[in-house]
Design brief:
- With 593 residues, the chain is mostly helical.
- It is built from 26 helices and 7 strands.
- The chain has a 5-stranded parallel β-sheet with strand order 3-2-1-4-5, with helices on both faces. The chain has a two-stranded parallel ribbon with strand order 6-7.
- Helix 8 links the parallel strand 4 and strand 5.
- It is globular.
- Its cofactor is (6R)-5,10-methylene-5,6,7,8-tetrahydrofolate; FAD.
Length: 593
């Protein structure tokens, strides 16, 4: 059982006070790290400034800089009196982002209510932004899923006489301007949207709140993507939690004390039939194609459509099936990738075709008790896993520099990483010579999805066996995953590379062979995704060249290992110790599992 840790904000030595490191040396190191980040594409200078310094990270931790979420909250509070004086215009607008559903949608529900009270129609919009996709590394499969989902959403809204306006804006900086222009064109005085918690989006919404008010428009942002809003949970000392277990206990307690958080948002009302005539051009318009920088071949589109049918109806069907068939055994079976024992709802949660609270509420209602932490272990385990989404978004808001290519434990930025292109390519393509790693990578490249246990295995392998900068892996995942969610992806990589919140200790290094034997004992997952090893019998499938199946593996073209785990493990331990300024001090042994 892991050692319990205090639930406090991280306390770190100032970079200028580290042993044997002068302030000038620290600044030079920050500069060198920034150059490396740019050289290897970790920082995209087309959209972002150089890598944030450790000193600036420390200023966030010391509350010396206003966090983006605090900026938005302050802006909302200051503008509230003026916004409340604005009368309803000729329509009310809801701006869809990552909430592509009509059911249990907080902002959409409030927009519908405002429109109904004002006796005006509701108009919905979605902006396709190729530059945002590029800046955020949104995968082509994810864009394809969103566009297919918009087709479903448009049809659902049309049944309620509600138009869905979808357009492509090439320059991301023009999106707020375009929204204001459409509000003016439609005579809208109120626009609603659900909050996104990344830095860019929080800052944009704060600016839009003021820009809209200057035009006599009430821009209202609400919490929806989380069950408990960021900042609502504090430790006993008044700090934000950086460890999941105590955070989760407090989260459970808070939800029990505020059960309204799990209530379903009111359903939306239909527009009068006259809206069909007023907005005829929008009803007649079609959903645009994917932008060139995120397009798929026709074969790829068919493949992803087969794996991931779009829309909230599919999400509801998958949730219902999971609750009826799998959830009772979820806790016992979820770590075994060959068993198809998980909900496969991550793409729906990340794109918003399903609200997390909807899934939690449904799981609770399927339980024998109403408490979220009682009854069926499978159900409580599933709710705990869903709560991680909230946790990582809370982290993103309180420590916003994790959204700026900096690790949560920013002193770990001093670790010397490798940037071996041959090794990175082998990892990306699933040709490392470690079957469980290769199977997982090939699953992601084929499906746009990877089992969570495998995400931890391949993450540990990249950072601690290949010693490659974990941020390259984080980025590769985002460019391939159909369920890519920045907060969860960043949190997962922080855990695997031991640089994030509540991480595995840096001296705990996964042995990929032992992980393979433990979680894919019969090799079913490996044989499914690594066809070269389908003829390898028994335990040899976990390391064919070491267990007498090398000739068969080589004959089918399966590669030999690109590194030796035992050797790389020792290198990793030394790199981490040196990066932390611990020299060769005894760290109390290690865990090799």
């Amino acid at each position: 059982m892991p050692v319990k840790r205090k639930a406090t904000s991280p306390v770190r030595p100032s970079p200028s006070k580290r042993p044997h490191t002068s302030n000038g040396e620290a600044q030079r190191y920050d500069y060198e790290q920034s150059r490396i980040a740019e050289k290897y594409g970790i920082i995209n200078r087309d959209y972002y400034p150089p890598e944030i310094s450790n000193e600036r990270c420390e200023q966030y931790n010391n509350n010396e800089i206003l966090r983006p979420v605090e900026l938005l909250e302050t802006t909302i509070k200051k503008t509230k009196p003026e916004r409340e004086e604005i009368n309803v215009g000729e329509c009310v607008v809801h701006w869809f982002k990552r909430d592509l559903r009509t059911r249990d949608n907080t902002a959409l529900s409030r927009a519908s209510k405002k429109a109904e009270e004002g006796g005006v129609p509701l108009v919905c919009m979605f902006i396709v932004s190729p530059q945002d996709y590029e800046a955020h590394l949104t995968s082509a499969p994810r864009v394809d899923f969103e566009l297919r989902t918009l087709e479903v959403l448009k049809a659902d809204l049309e049944e309620l006489n509600i138009p869905l306006y979808v357009t492509t804006i090439e320059n991301r900086k023009d999106v707020p301007k375009h929204i204001l222009e459409k509000c003016a064109e439609w005579g809208a005085k109120h626009i609603y949207c659900n909050i996104e918690y990344e830095v860019d989006e929080l800052r944009r919404e704060a600016k839009l709140t003021k820009a809209c008010l200057a035009k006599g428009i009430d821009f209202t942002t609400v919490h929806d993507d989380v069950v408990v809003p960021p900042g609502a949970l504090k430790s006993g000392s008044g700090n934000q939690y950086s460890v999941y277990s105590p955070w989760f206990r407090t989260w459970i307690k808070h939800v029990h004390e505020h059960p309204v958080l799990l209530n379903e948002a009111d359903p939306i009302s239909a527009n009068p039939l006259s809206a069909k005539e007023t907005f005829a051009a929008i009803f007649a318009s079609s959903i645009p194609s994917a932008p060139p920088n995120k397009s798929l071949t026709e074969a790829e589109r068919k493949r992803y459509a087969n794996y991931w049918p779009p829309g909230e109806h599919e999400a509801a069907l998958r949730l219902s099936r999971f609750l009826a068939e799998k959830i009772k055994k979820y806790k016992d079976l979820r770590n075994f990738p060959s068993l198809n024992s998980t909900s496969l709802l991550s793409v729906h949660l990340s794109s918003g075709t399903l609200a997390a609270r909807t899934a939690i509420r449904a799981a609770r209602d399927a339980n024998s008790v109403t408490r979220l932490d009682g009854g069926s272990p499978g159900i409580t385990g599933y709710i705990s896993e869903l709560a991680w989404r909230d946790f990582y978004k809370h982290v993103l808001c309180h420590w916003p520099y994790v959204c700026m290519s900096k690790p949560f434990k920013y002193e770990y930025a001093d670790i010397e990483w490798e940037y071996n292109p041959a090794h990175f390519t082998a990892w990306c393509e699933g040709k490392t010579g470690y079957p469980i790693v290769d199977a997982a990578m090939r699953q992601m490249n084929e499906m746009g999805y990877m089992h969570n246990r495998c995400r931890m295995i391949v993450g540990s392998f990249l950072a601690k066996d290949l010693l490659i900068d974990w941020r390259l892996g984080e980025q590769y995942f985002m460019t391939r995953l159909v369920d890519g969610d920045f907060a969860s992806n960043n949190g997962g990589w922080g855990f695997s590379a031991s640089v994030g919140v509540d991480p595995q200790p840096y001296f705990r290094i996964f042995n990929p062979v032992l992980q393979s034997e433990k979680f894919d004992a019969e090799g079913e997952y490996i044989r499914k995704w690594v066809p070269e090893l389908r003829g390898v019998g028994g335990k040899a499938v976990h390391e064919p060249y070491a267990r007498g199946a090398g000739k068969e593996a080589e004959g089918k073209g399966y590669p030999r290992r690109i590194v030796e785990h035992k050797v790389q493990r020792e290198k990793a331990l030394e790199r981490y110790k040196r990066g932390l300024g611990r020299g060769t001090a005894n760290v109390g042994g290690g865990v090799h599992n």
